[in-house]
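Q: Hi! First time doing this. I have a protein sequence and I read that you can turn it into a structure. Is that right? Here it is:
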Amino acid sequence: MTDPFPTLVEIAAQEEELQLRSFTNDDAWDVGCALVDAARAQAAPIAIDVRRNAHVLFHVALPGATPDNDSWIERKARVVHRFGHSSLYVGQRSREAGTTFDDQYGLDPQRYAAHGGAFPVTVRSVGPVGVVVVSGLPQVADHQLVVGVLRAHLN
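A: Yes, that's right. Below is the predicted 3D structure, encoded as structure tokens:
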């Protein structure tokens, strides 16, 4: 059974809650390593990517991840960069509007994927500065993994 999709309101609340005071290379390393630890605890076959703007600060493919996961990472990250919201938020906004992301925006599906797992790195009073992406689990689980690790990082 797959996890139900959170509502747009719930995802927006996560995006508001999970804003950082700063985002350094060390923060990217810490978030990336925490994602690795969480994924290993679940034996999750994922790829992880942490970026500040276009600069990749952390990238790893855990056992079971495939090159296809890197393609998903790129496509989900483009959604965050273009729309300024998590990839799950953008996809859910289309679903709640009674359409699909592809139909609503007409973007090349080989370049954009509004599937969960990419979350904006937002510095409070600055705005979006990067993205954390996970690929390899069902999209809601990808999203929840990132949210859980960012929440722990903030605390």
